[in-house]
Specification:
The structure holds three protein chains of three kinds.
Chain A (H helix, E strand, L loop, with lengths): L6 H30 L7 H19 L2 H25 L4 H24 L12 E2 L9 H5 L1 E2 L1 H19 L1 H11 L1 H6 L4 H28 L10 H12 L3 H23 L6 H19 L19
Helix pairs in contact in A: 1-6, 1-9, 1-10, 1-11, 2-3, 2-4, 2-9, 2-10, 3-4, 3-9, 6-7, 6-11, 7-9, 10-11, 11-12
Chain B lengths: L2 E11 L2 E12 L2 E6 L6 H8 L7 E6 L2 E3 L4 H6 L2 E4 L11 H6 L10 H15 L14 H13 L5 E5 L7 H16 L3 E6 L2 H7 L2 E6 L2 E6 L1 H6 L2 H13 L3 H5 L7 H4 L36 H8 L17 E7 L12 E5 L4 E5 L6 H9 L6 E6 L2 E2 L5 H6 L2 E4 L3 H5 L6 H5 L10 E2 L2 E2 L1 H14 L16 H12 L6 E5 L7 H16 L3 E5 L3 H7 L2 E6 L2 E7 L6 H11 L6
Parallel strand pairs in B: 3-8, 3-9, 6-7, 7-8, 13-20, 13-21, 16-19, 19-20
Antiparallel strand pairs in B: 1-2, 1-4, 4-5, 9-10, 11-12, 11-14, 14-15, 17-18, 21-22
Chain C lengths: L1 H8 L6 H25 L4 H14 L1 H26 L7 H20 L4 H19 L1 H10 L3 H23 L30 H18 L1 H11 L1 H6 L4 H28 L10 H11 L4 H24 L6 H28 L1
Helix pairs in contact in C: 2-15, 3-4, 3-14, 4-9, 4-12, 4-13, 4-14, 5-6, 5-8, 5-12, 6-12, 7-8, 7-12, 9-10, 13-14, 13-15
Classes of the chains: A mainly alpha, B alpha/beta, C mainly alpha.
């Protein structure tokens, strides 16, 4: 057991947790915004995957990591635009369209990658890191938490920013109303469709960014299907966190640690099956749900298209 | 002062012309009542001004300038504030947050400024509401005041109210009247939409009457003052129903006579969806009144709000059919649950339940139907304890429940009329044998009920959601008031129906009572209850505050007592 | 474009011809748009489609493989129909499928030593169904008792189930004689019997029968109607006095049980064993098919045939035409979107006509 308290193990655990957790955080924050506004965005997995692909390709050809992140975010938003057209504008079933979009982009990114790179998986150079002055000197914590891509710090700042947006801006009120009582928002002179569209585009943007981080920073390459359900974990995080961004952060950290645990355990020379460790966060969440389950924690209008004059 | 006018405005909907060449002017410093029955075009007019609908022809002008109101936002920018029939507040937000809704989205909330404005309006309206209270903690009347504040939030210029009194106690109505008059004196143009004649007199400086989408006429403030009340009544009735109508209106003292008259066949309603199933079959013989008045006398009586009532001989010496003793329910936060409700219900009588919405009526209906568990207390049917019986058990014993949420829970909108007619009997004989469905029998019996109850539907396979509100209610009544019914609980049986169907529903209730069914009718419309009930119980904060006798000799006295009970005054 | 015109001009009433048209238009549109994607990427769409059809449907071996592929998909579809009709989003199919597969794979080689083949197969299928059903019990209870959203819980139980399957294979049921961790293999001639001298196993027959039974259950019985009422309007089900909690749990258990049966059939019919980290991820894949078929059991058979042929043909085409097999997913997704759009346009056109 002493092996678990060594510096290499802890650093690798923390570092890995951040790397694995940031995409989940971004996806969860994005999904949360959609859900707040009454849209159940099941297509988020597809948005992440396309973000990962677009981000990787941009970074690969342009040689710029920042362009990569930007392309990933825009790619995610482009996928969100499809969801927006079909679900928000046309009122089609959000779950069906979400799954269709996810599958479609699983297929499309595989195809695009194959056409460009055939069966090779070229690797990007290591992404630049920003060691936070002072903080990164702290033993263990510094190396594990404060020596990452700048995007990591921005993501954490985003948690604070979104908390503020939800609590203290007119936009926050509008999002809340769009999910809880869209007709009230409409009567207040705010376009419900536009509010929800905005939320869905933000979701795509953040999910795409998360996907790009996975490809550019996390893996350094693009592999078809590489998001591996991260989008779905994002949905779970958003639903569990209700409207609070900080709970998405907590959830993402929990999942990040468990995902990083397997690698860290190998570093420590222990051979615990990865699957057991990977089950832990899901099991923990189920236990929490069983112990504290109360009535539905979702906005009443979630998943329902809005038509003025109906209801 | 503001001056808003409609010039030759026309608005069509599929199958009907909702507004036909209507010209009207609304002025600041005046309470302008728009009067008309359901479907006369009042709400359409409101929708046009509030930016929810666009006119097909004609112009809306504000202060002489033609304007296009293509969105609620635009309507607000023009200084028009609207308070709709349903409350439009976000339940998860506080009062002040609800009021701040709709500000420029990229900006942080300007709470201090909002609180200042809140204070101003609270002074104008003379209300005392905590701006930081969650809206779910407010009474319906208070929530409506918040809605009024929101409508006036930008500027105190023009205020539209659609049937604002329907959810208020008599006291609340009085407060609202005071509030409206204060606003009028400040120069606000107020437009009050209602179908209740008495309210029109009470509030209106000017009354415009809409009839089948047309402006039937207007009584300006000078004439309002020069006419006596009976002259005004006659004038308005003439406008609403055409010449000759006022003569019948006088008959309202001759107790049951006009009300015993059969309801006119529904086919004469132009607003019903044109979905005939074969030739229209009148329920009963055509009206015997010789005069071909557009509507029959009972409807006029209903509109004046002074109705005679249907009395039935009830033998209360025999044991009651239904007895509730000290019933209580457990409720979620924000729900009014029952506390210590006891009453008896005899065969052949109608027990009206009055009260402001949300005082436990829903729980009362549900606990009697078996849809909600009783936390304490006892229910017995003809002496037999049924407290623990579930809906199907009680249904088998003859307890029926017509819910007020016709599409919400009463029917499955996407399913056929036929399925909805047997919705509460799934799995039972004769329609199901060993769990297998006999579709032929279900459809056959549906066709029969459609005929018997004059349900206007293209076929028994039509999704029930495509029917008009009146016909959906007929489906529910056909399902619940069958031959086996012994006790029927009806929640707001006429709510949202047009006049013809309101009459029809009341006829059905009366007929069931005469057959010996014990009925409970829950309604927020006191006039209706005074008409139909033998006794009227009043719900207040989950308790049955009292039961008032509404027998033949009581009359206006009963109304006064019920009104007192509704506000929580001491039991009668 | 011509197809769109057809939709606009023809009065699509509620007849079988209309139903076929409503499906045909999206299929053609999806193939056309999908082809345009291929063409834009420098591939010849006609080559691809031709090859897919030839490999998936025309050749005997391909056709056999297509039919074999249908078995698990049909059973999962049957399970999803039950859930979706009852308004329950069972998105946890992967976990239910895999766990059932692992348990029946572990059980079969043991049982075959003591029991006759038929008994072994039946018991293993029952075990699979039971395991699938058990794995849905927690989401079912949480939904029935507290109204906890089943999308979250089934997704999580799915992730859990997939991991647990791997743990079981690696730690409990591994075959010591193989290098890759996998369960002990059921000998080929002890698996589900082949049909009529083909390579297609009897599981396909079971799947079709089960699907038809589910369809009849939903359309001809009181239980089916109750589930449909629950799915269409939960409040109405409560109002009508149905035991909503019990119905919810039953729908869950039936749905997951059928998906579990799919896992067992796939193992007993095709593989005879489960390797670690094997996850065909059929659970989510079938969701669109079920919606394409509008929850109609018979239509599901058609769509599953179409999809299986695409999958089988697409796998061969990957090498030959240079289009990865996952491209099939693009077609299904386009199909789904076009189907939804056509339905939407049809509905709004009808609304206008009613006006």
């Amino acid at each position: 057991m002493n092996a678990l308290l060594t510096e290499p193990f802890l650093v690798s655990l923390l570092y890995g947790a951040v790397t694995a957790g940031v995409p989940l955080l971004l996806a969860g924050l994005g999904e949360q915004m959609s859900e707040k506004a009454g849209v159940l965005n099941v297509g988020i997995e597809g948005m992440m995957l396309f973000g990962a692909y677009a981000g990787f390709v941009a970074a690969w050809y342009a040689g710029s990591f920042w362009l990569g992140f930007l392309a990933g975010a825009i790619g995610g938003a482009a996928v969100a635009f499809i969801v927006l057209l079909l679900c928000i504008r046309r009122g089609l079933n959000q779950i069906v369209v979400g799954i269709a979009v996810t599958m479609g982009f699983q297929g499309l990114t595989s195809l695009l990658h194959f056409v460009q790179f055939s069966r090779t998986y070229p690797r990007l150079a290591a992404a630049p890191v920003l060691a936070l002055p002072g903080l990164s000197r702290i033993p263990i914590l510094g190396k594990g938490l404060f020596d990452h891509s700048p995007l990591v710090y921005l993501s954490v700042l985003l948690v604070i920013a979104l908390t503020w947006v939800y609590r203290a801006t007119y936009l926050g009120l509008s999002l809340e109303a769009a999910g809880n009582k869209p007709s009230a928002l409409d009567a207040a002179g705010v376009d419900v469709i536009r509010t929800r569209s905005f939320a869905v585009l933000c979701t795509g943007f953040l999910a795409g960014l998360g996907g790009a981080y996975m490809a550019i920073v996390g893996a350094g390459l693009f592999v078809p299907f590489m998001t591996g359900g991260a989008g779905f974990i994002g949905i779970v995080l958003a639903m569990l966190a209700r409207g609070r961004p900080v709970w998405v952060l907590v959830g993402a950290a929990l999942f990040g640690v468990s995902l990083a645990m397997t690698t860290a355990l190998q570093v420590a020379g222990l051979n615990v099956p990865t699957d057991v460790v990977q089950m832990l966060p899901f099991a923990a969440v189920m236990v929490v749900l069983v112990l504290f389950a109360r009535h539905s924690m979702l906005p009443p209008a979630l998943g329902l298209p809005y038509v003025r004059g109906e209801r | 002062m503001v001056d808003a006018s409609l010039r030759q405005v026309t608005k069509r909907f599929p199958g009907i012309v909702a507004l036909d060449d209507v010209s009207l002017t609304f002025r600041g410093g005046e309470i302008h009542v728009l009067l008309g029955e359901n479907g006369a075009g009042k709400s359409t007019l409101m929708g046009l001004l509030a930016g929810m609908l666009k006119p097909d022809a004609g112009v809306i002008a504000i202060d002489g300038e033609p304007v296009t109101i293509d969105s609620p936002r635009r309507s607000m920018d023009l200084g028009i504030g609207a308070v709709f029939q349903q409350l439009l507040l976000v339940p998860s937000l506080t009062v002040i947050e609800n009021l701040m809704l709709g500000g420029p989205w990229w900006q942080p909330l300007k709470r201090a400024a909002a609180l200042r404005r809140f204070g101003e309006l609270a002074t104008v309206l003379a209300t005392r509401i905590d701006p930081d209270a969650p809206v779910t903690a407010l009474s319906l009347g208070e929530q409506q005041q918040v809605e009024i504040m929101r409508a006036l939030w930008r500027e105190e210029k023009m205020l539209l109210l659609d049937e604002p009194t329907s959810m208020l106690t008599p006291q609340g109505v009085e407060d609202l009247g005071r509030m409206l008059r204060r606003l009028r004196d400040k120069g606000v143009a107020l437009i009050l939409i209602t179908h209740k004649l008495l309210e029109a007199y009470e509030f209106g400086d000017r009354i415009s009457v809409l009839r089948q989408g047309r402006l039937a006429g207007e009584i300006d403030p000078q004439r309002m003052q020069s006419l006596s009340e009976s002259e005004r009544t006659a004038e308005v009735l003439r406008l609403m129903f055409g010449a000759g109508a006022h003569a019948d209106a006088r008959t309202n003292d001759a107790a049951p006579a006009p009300l015993g008259a059969p309801a006119p066949a529904e086919a004469s309603t132009p607003l019903e969806a044109p979905t005939p199933l074969g030739p229209p079959t009148p329920l009963e013989a055509p009206a015997p009144l010789g005069a071909p008045a557009p509507l029959e006398a009972p409807d006029l009586a209903a509109l004046t709000g002074r109705k005679a009532h249907r009395a039935r001989p009830v033998d209360r010496r025999q044991p009651p059919m239904l007895r509730a003793s000290a019933l209580a329910t457990a409720g979620d936060v924000g729900e009014a649950s029952l506390r210590e409700v006891s009453f008896d219900l005899w065969p052949g009588e109608v027990l009206g339940i009055a009260g402001v919405d949300g005082n436990g009526q829903k729980h009362l209906a549900e606990v009697l139907a078996g849809q909600r568990a009783a936390a304490r207390g006892r229910i017995s049917l003809a002496g037999r304890d049924i407290t623990r019986g579930r809906v199907p058990d009680r249904r088998r014993l003859g307890i029926r429940y017509v819910t007020d949420e016709r599409l919400g829970e009463g029917t499955v909108a996407t399913f056929s009329v036929a399925i909805n007619l047997v919705l509460k009997e799934i799995g039972t004989l004769p329609y199901w044998r060993h769990g297998l469905t006999d579709w032929n029998l279900i459809q056959e019996s549906a066709r029969e009920k459609i005929r018997a109850h004059d349900i206007r539907t293209p076929s028994e396979r039509t999704p029930v959601g495509k029917l008009s509100g009146g016909n959906i209610q007929k489906v529910l009544l056909a399902r619940e008031l069958g031959a086996e019914a012994r006790v029927a609980i009806l929640n707001k049986p006429t709510y949202g129906l047009d006049l013809q169907n309101q009459r029809l529903a009341l006829e059905r209730i009366d007929a069931a009572a005469k057959r010996g069914v014990a009925l409970m009718v829950i309604s927020t419309d006191l006039d209706e209850l005074l008409e139909i009930s033998d006794r009227i119980g009043v719900m207040y904060q989950g308790r049955l505050a009292g039961i008032v006798d509404n027998g033949l000799s009581t009359g206006a006295d009963a109304e006064r007592k019920v009104a007192a009970l509704m506000t929580g005054a001491a039991a009668a | 474009m011509t197809q769109l015109r057809v939709a606009g001009r023809t009065r699509i009433a509620d007849g079988p011809a209309a139903a076929v048209l409503r499906v045909l238009i999206p299929v053609v549109l999806a193939l056309v748009v999908g082809g345009m994607v291929l063409w834009a990427l420098g591939k010849n769409p006609l080559d691809y489609y031709g090859y897919v059809i030839e490999r998936g449907l025309m050749r005997r071996s391909g056709l056999q493989e297509t039919f074999t592929r249908m078995a698990p998909l049909l059973l999962i579809a049957a399970g999803l129909i039950v859930a979706f009709r009852a308004g329950i989003w069972n998105l946890g199919g992967d976990g239910q499928f895999l766990l059932a597969a692992v348990i029946s794979a572990a059980l079969a080689p043991v049982l075959i030593g003591v029991l006759p083949r038929a008994a072994t197969l039946v018991l293993c299928m029952a075990a699979g169904a039971l395991v699938g059903a058990l794995w849905s019990l927690l989401p079912a209870m949480l939904k029935a008792r507290y109204g906890v959203n089943e999308i979250v819980t089934t997704l999580m139980m799915s992730f859990l189930g997939v991991s647990l399957s791997n743990v079981l294979i690696k730690l409990a049921f591994f075959d010591p004689d193989t290098t890759v961790p996998q369960t002990r293999s059921l000998p080929v001639d002890e698996r589900l019997p082949r049909l009529f001298g083909t390579t297609v196993h009897g599981g396909v027959l079971i799947a079709v029968v089960v699907l038809v039974l589910v369809h009849l259950l939903m359309t001809r019985t009181a239980f089916g109607l109750k589930l449909q009422v629950l799915g269409a309007n939960r409040a109405a089900a409560i109002h009508a006095g149905e035991r909503v909690g019990r119905l919810t749990v039953l729908a869950f258990v039936l749905s997951a049980g059928l998906i579990g049966l799919a896992g067992a059939v796939e193992v007993l019919g095709v593989w005879g064993t489960v390797r670690a980290d094997w996850n065909p991820a059929y659970g989510l894949l079938v969701v669109p098919l079920v919606f394409l078929a509008r929850l109609n059991g018979y239509a599901v058979i058609g769509f599953t045939l179409f999809f299986s042929a695409l999958m089988v043909g697409g796998e061969s085409a990957a090498h030959r035409v240079g289009v990865p097999q996952n491209y099939v997913l693009v077609l299904v997704s386009l199909l789904l979107i076009f189907l939804a759009l056509v339905e939407y346009l049809d509905q709004s056109r009808r609304k206008r006509q009613a006006a």
